[in-house]
Structures are given as C-alpha cells and as structure tokens.
What does this fold into?
Amino acid sequence: MTDTPAVADRMDRMYRSQRHFYDFTRKYYLLGRDRLIYRLAPPPGGRVLEIGCGTARNLAVAARAYPEATFFGVDISAEMLETARRAVGWGQIRLAMADATSFDASRLFGVRDFSRVFLSYSLSMIPDWPAAVERAVSCLAPGGELHIVDFGRQEGLPACLRIGLRRWLSAFHVTPRDELEEWLAPHARQSGATTTVEHPYGGYAQYAVVRRPRREIGDG
It folds into this structure.
C-alpha cells in the first residue's frame, strides 16, 4: 500500500526546483518516450491517459500528434502539476492530482475507461508499482492498450556503467523494475490480455505493451 501523503511530499520537495528545467535535462536520458508516443496511435475520438504525467510534456507532444483524441493526466506532485497546467492551456488535455495506485477516473474526469493508457519513466518512481500497473489495466476500454517505457536492466551496457547509472538513479528515488516482464505476462493473462516487451538501447530501457481483448473472456 502506498503512503500517499509521504510520497506526494517527497515528490514535491524533489521537484519544487527541478520542474523548472526538468524537460530540458531529461531529454538526454529518458530514452524511448517519443517512440512510445508514436506507437500509441489512439483511434479517432479516443481517450488517452498518462499516469505520472509530470510537466505534461508527453501529453502535449501526443496531443499535437493526435488532434482527434482527448488527453488526460494524473500526477501525485502538486508542484509538477503547477508547471503542467501552465504548459497546457487548451481543452484537449485535462489534468488532476491523484495517486497512481488508487485514482478514480470517473470521479476525476467523469470518464470510465480509455483507449490508451501510458506510463513514461514513472513506474520506476512508484513504490507500489504492481498496484499502479493493475490500476492502469483496469482503466482500459475493450481493445485498449497500456504502454510502459522505463529504465531496463541495462544488460547490454558495460558493468561499470550499469552500476554507476543505478547509483545515480537511486539518488532520485528511481528504481528500475527489473521484474516487470516476468510479473506482467501472468497478471495480464488473468484478464485475457496479451503482452509484448522490448529491450531497446542495449537494454537501457524496456518498453512493454498490454493489449486488452475487444471481447472479454466468457462473452458470447
């Protein structure tokens, strides 16, 4: 169970200053974000939710790429959402403060489900990350997709570089979810969903997709 107030306070303290230059610095090492946006391809009129939207950089890029979709974002940090709300000034993107593991989309947005849900380098910062993935999958409409990009195992990198990277990430409360692929497949199968996982950039990143069937198991 996530201690929501404690996590929110930690995120706010960390990003109170960083949010002002966050996007400029992160573009050099949050690899695969734009690949994810390119692959979202929501249907016309579809709804897209980002969990852990931060400054809303990804939502803004996706909204320009898919002008016929509607976008939503949740984040636990009030500081990051302040920056996000200044960045997105039009009705195509709606934002709300919420815990990734327990948010209620119906209450926040009046929306029950989404065509696409994605987490971009946020899963590694969520303490109860399995609960966040389960919540994300539960938000998918029939035929919907969950896309996740985050730090991978870095198995293709030199050992010294991998060790140094992980020590540096830990200083920012970032923990790569090495067990994501093994955890994801059996949990997805319980709902009839399918999964694919890639390990781009020599395993620096991992990119997972969960696809919910258009018709649930047992439907006629």
User: Anything to note?
Assistant: The beta strands are 47-51, 70-75, 93-97, 114-120, 140-151, 194-198, 205-211. The chain is about 40% helix and 20% strand. The two ends are 37 Å apart (CA to CA). The CA atoms of residues 194 and 211 lie 5 Å apart.
